[in-house]
Every structure is written in structure tokens, then in C-alpha cells.
Amino acid sequence: MLTETLMPEKAGALPRMAGYAALMPGGALARRKVIVSVDQDDEARWVECLKKISEARDQAAFTALFRHFAPRVKSFLARSGTGEALAEECMQDVMATVWIKAYMFDPSRASVATWVFTIARNRKIDMLRRQRRPEPEDLPWGPEAEPGPAEALAFRQEAARLGTALQTLPPPQRELIERAFFGDLSHGEIARETGLPLGTIKSRIRLALDRLRHAMKSPPDQT
Amino acid sequence: MTSLTHHLTEDLLMAYAAGNLPEAFSLVVATHISLCDDCRAALAALECVGGNLLEECAPSPLADDALARALARIADAPGPIARPAIPAPVRRGVLPAPLQGYVGGDLEAVRWRPAGPGVRQAILPVGDGATARLLHIRGGQSVPDHGHRGMELTLVLQGAFRDGAARFARGDIEIVAEEVEHCPVAEEGEDCICLAATDAPLRFRGMLPRLAQPFLQI
Q1: pTM recorded for the entire structure
Q2: Residue B184 in contact with residue B202, Cβ under 8 Å?
Q3: Which CATH number does the domain housing residue B112 bear?
Q4: Scanning A88, B43, B65, B151, which has its CA 20 to 30 A from the CA of A146?
């Protein structure tokens, strides 16, 4: 069941947090504070950049985003099997989409990295599969057209927490999650490539997601 | 994945989040998420994993003129466009928005073809790897006993059907794995409309449906 895996308790909200400290060794916990604060500062900066792009066609803001995300987007695409030249071209498409669609970014629903990831992923599908990407119906907007700053801040904290949880996954699980996301490989193909039986792969991925779910459930006041 | 479930499985959600599903399955996932807030939130969490992985990708060196090219390109680009002040009205119908994109409208736009007693279907135009179709099953009608070479996803859009002890109503998704034979029956009353996707042709048990299979394209 979904609600037992990586699932938030309620629609629209990201998961609440509980019992995270129990999962973490003391060293990791100490490290985490630093990582989280850095991540959140960066995130606030990228959100501001997107706002400046959508409101003022601010090329300096775009340049800042480009310097940070373009090399990562290219790296992601290259790892997905596009080859160097194609990855460079597609990265250009992705960054142009970031400019054009900046107004659609909603900081209370996704981090900037997550939003850029979805654009890069869709470009990858288009290029490697030559298929359309059906997207879910958008949620009807509530009475506030603009997300509240508190909501966006809460989201930033949760996203940062997930990022930290991801960094502390044991390497074998971490690697499998990466492959599931960045490779164009099904679980069966991953099994063939790594020589691990399919059941092991699936249970490792589940275990990894399970750990992330627990991490996401730790109370915010513990960070 | 041998059991039936009313939601998407984690495997399917993750493959959708990663962009590794064939188009027909993506369509079922997107349509289900349009009707299921739990799975929508689950997808958001998995995409957040993707975002974090992107953030941690070792940066690749770019072409020397990469930034200059990007700046030249956005100077000519139409956007960015301001967020509309008034929320766009949400279309409400039997078919959620992603499906309407394939049909060209709501139910009235579907071009049904007969597919056996009490059953009509419409094949949807999707890319390679899996097929997608809409099924219209008369209330009380059963769909012939069939097994699968691959995985079958069935999402209810109107009415309800039963398969063994389980009941599936609007928004519910039935996931049937390879080799499982089953016999869904539409409930009496309102006709049942479903979106179904398979990644391999179905295999019917009876001789007649098997002969008809090539003509029905399922």
C-alpha cells in the first residue's frame, strides 16, 4: 500500500516527520544541521531567482540558475544514456524551458531542484522514447492564488530533510535508487546489469524508500 | 506484484517519477493521480527524491559558449509569461484532463467500436511498449476470462466492477500481474467505463475470444 511506503498522511502536504533521530547515528545528526541550513539558504536563493525571472525577465537571475543547474542537468542527461553532444543540446532546451515556465513554479509544492528535475526528465522521455508524457490534472487552486511564505518555508525544510536522508542511505541502496531514477532501466534490466536477483533489487529499493519515509517522519523541531 | 490493489504500487509510481514507463502506463498513472490525492502526494515525494539526486549529480563540464547560447536563446524566447490572475476553470467530466487530451474531449468525443457482447472499446494513440484503450462495459456484463503475458492496469472512470471479492469504483486501479487469470464483472446498474493498459497482448481462455483477439486489437 502506498500509504505505508513513502506516503504523506494527507493530500497536498508533504509528510510530517517523526522518529528520525532514532534512525540516525549521532555523527550524521550533527552533520545534518550544517547541510540543512546550507541547502535552505541555497533553495531560498533559487526561488528568488525564478521569481525575478518571471516578474522582471531578469537575465542575471537566469545566469545564476544556469551556472548551478546546467552542469547538473547535463550530467543527469548524460547518465541517462544520451551521449555527450545530445546531453549538451538537451540541457539547452531544459534551461530555456526553465526561463519560459518560471511563472509556473510554486515553491509550496516543489523545490527548485525538483522542478528542474521534472523538466529534465520530461525532455529525456521526449528524446529517448519519443513519446508523450501524460501529466496529472492540476489541482484546482484554492482561495489564495499565491502560496503563503510559511508554506513555502515548510516545504523547503521538508525537502532539505529528504535530501539529508538520501545522503545517509547505505551505498548499495543509494546506488539502486540512483539507477532507478537516472538510468533508463527497468528493475529487470538493473538486475541483469548488476547480477543481483530481481527480488533483491526490489526489496533493496523498497528498503531505501522505507528509510526515506522514516526520515521524513521525524518531527521538524528535531532539526 | 501478484495481488490486486486499488492504488498505484510504489514500483509504478517510481517508474513514472523517473520517466521510465511506457506511454500507455504513464497515461493510467496520470489519470489515477488526477483522481487520487494520496498518490499525488506520493508522486511529489518521489519527484523530490529525483530533485535531490539531480542536485547531487557531479556537475558536467559545459561547452565554452553554453551560457552565451542560452542567453541568446532566452532573449528571443516568448516567455516568461506572468501567472494568470484568475485561476483557470477546472474542466469537470467523466474523463480526467490527461485522458481528455488523448480522446479530444470528454465521453461524448470517444469513438467506440463494438468488442463483444455488451462491451465497446476505443484504442488510444500511444507510443510503443504498451497499449491503452477505453472500455465501455454494460452493467452486469462480464469481461471474458483472460490471462496476460504482461501486466494489465485497469482504472475505473464510471460505474464499478467486481473481480472476485474485490470491488473497484471510480478512481480505483486494478493491477493484474503476468499469468494471472481473472474475470472482472461490471456491477448491475450504471455502465462501467474503464481505462486499461497492457504491456503485452491479452491471452483469452475461451476459443472464441482468442479467435476474435486479432480483430479487437487487444
Answers
A1: 0.79
A2: no
A3: 2.60.120.10
A4: B43
